[in-house]
Amino acid sequence: METFRVGLLLTERCDAECSHCWFSSGPNRTRSMKPDEARGYIDQAAEVSTVEWISFTGGEPFLMPEALVELVGYASERGIKVECATNCSWATSKEAAESRLNELMDAGLDTVNISMDDFHQRHIPFERVRNCYEASKEGGIKAVIMCASSRSNALGIDEIRLRLGDEGIHDIRAGRPTSPVSALAVETGFIPVGRAASIPEEEWLIGDGPLDGPCEEVLRDIGIAPSGQVLPCCSAAGLVDYARLGDAGTERLSELLRRARLNPLFKMLSSEGPRGLDRIIDGSRGDRYVNRCHLCHDVLSDPRLPDAIEKLG
Ligand code: SF4
Ligand code: SF4
């Protein structure tokens, strides 16, 4: 459970309001990290010797343009690799995309994670995604395409390849690429929690991912929310108060992580996954889940779990 990446959720605000957004971001969410708080978290992350990456995410981190450039530079100067997620709403033209990405690359940005799928494209014209993607290629920055899918999904990786005119986009479900690729693409079923819980069940991709087995992300790929709360991963567990590690505004991240690694909750997630947690409650959960993270959110939200964990000692 050595932490390799720290995601800073710079803001809860977003200029889109996607129906599948389990973090329930949107224009009416206002909480953001102050730049000096973010710098403090980067300093704390740099103290953890295993941390290789800082990821700026949200909400939409490009809504804080000056802070983003400054923070990318701050993290990069500390020898940490930097990635940034975006919905590309700001890439209104090829020139606008090049100008913003070049500034971030000059500051030290290594990778841009670009969201593209039916959910996002109900709010953001695909043209803007193309502008950002092409600017990333021309600038020589790595791009990772993030695609959330549903049962009636039309914009999957095959369609994205067609629309971007790029056959070099590699679907990670096909395994590790054996030759150079232009971008990696990750397509997963949306997780029906948070706002996404209101999407009708017939759209859920039940069984899209495995439900059994250990979680390889817990405490390895953590997040810090604008409130300072440390999230155990960058997925749905972060919504559950019980699974949070504490406040990085009042305690050192290294201490919160040290304590978490001793916590039977995270040990169980890392060794047996959410199925193990279900088993110590009553083992009653079946297979009506999209993936392990969907199951995990359900188990972590069970009010009987804290007592069951307490008994494990
Ligand atoms: S999924 Fe991304 S783009 Fe959509 S509302 Fe959430 S943060 Fe914004
Ligand atoms: S299984 Fe749970 S702890 Fe692991 S990444 Fe998914 S939500 Fe997070």
Summarize the structure.
This protein is α/β, with parallel strands linked by helices. It is 35% helix and 15% strand.
Written account of the structure:
- The protein is α/β, with parallel strands linked by helices and 313 residues long.
- It has a domain at 5-204: Aldolase class I (TIM Barrel), CATH 3.20.20.70.
- It has 11 helices and 10 strands.
- Strands 6-7-5-4-3-2-1-8-9-10 form a 10-stranded mixed β-sheet.
- Strand 8 (221-224) and strand 9 form a beta hairpin.
- Helix 1 runs parallel beside helix 2 (65-77) and helix 2 (65-77) packs parallel to helix 3.
- The longest helix is centred in the N-terminal third of the chain and has 14 residues, at 94-107.
- One iron/sulfur cluster binds at residues 14, 16-18, 21, 23, 25-26, 58-60, 87, 115, 120.
The CATH C-level name of the domain at 5-204 is Alpha Beta
Mean pLDDT: 96
Task: Figure out the total of helices.
Answer: 11
CATH topology of the domain at 5-204: TIM Barrel
How would you characterize the largest beta sheet? Answer: 10 strands, mixed
Number of strands: 10
Measured by DSSP, the beta-strand proportion falls in 15-25%
The named CATH superfamily of the domain at 5-204: Aldolase class I
Share of helix, binned: 25-40%
Q: What is the rounded distance between the termini? A: 19 Å
**Bound small molecules, deduplicated:** iron/sulfur cluster
Structural classification: alpha/beta
Looking across the biggest beta sheet, what order are the strands in? 6-7-5-4-3-2-1-8-9-10
Low-pLDDT residue intervals, each spanning 5 or more residues: none
- Spell the H/E element sequence: EHEHEHEHHEHEEEEEHHHHH
Q: What overall geometry do the principal axes of the alpha carbons give?
A: globular
